[in-house]
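Treating backbone geometry as a discrete language has practical consequences that deserve illustration. The sequence in question and its structure tokens are set out directly beneath this paragraph.
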Amino acid sequence: MAELRAKMLERVTPDDIAAVVEALVNKAKSGDTAAMKLLLDRVFGRVADHDAAAEEDRAEIVALQRVVWRAHAEESAEQIALERPIREAEQGRMLATRARLARM
């Protein structure tokens, strides 16, 4: 196969490639749907390839969001645990103050 490909490459010139591309473009312009599909697939890539790439991007974004959410949840839980003694101390002072006021 490699030998056949090498022989073909020896035979095909840049002008030949330009002529083939020109013919493909003309067929696509004239309404040949197979030529349109081939031309667009070669120029922009297959739609399925873009869909797969977009799906990979979406999966990566979702994974990153989960990491951020998990870190935020852990940070929030840690912050709540750190704030609990402060809140309890404040509530204790408030109750003590109320008790003193009630005795007056």
Summary: Helices lie at 2-11, 14-29, 33-44, 47-103.
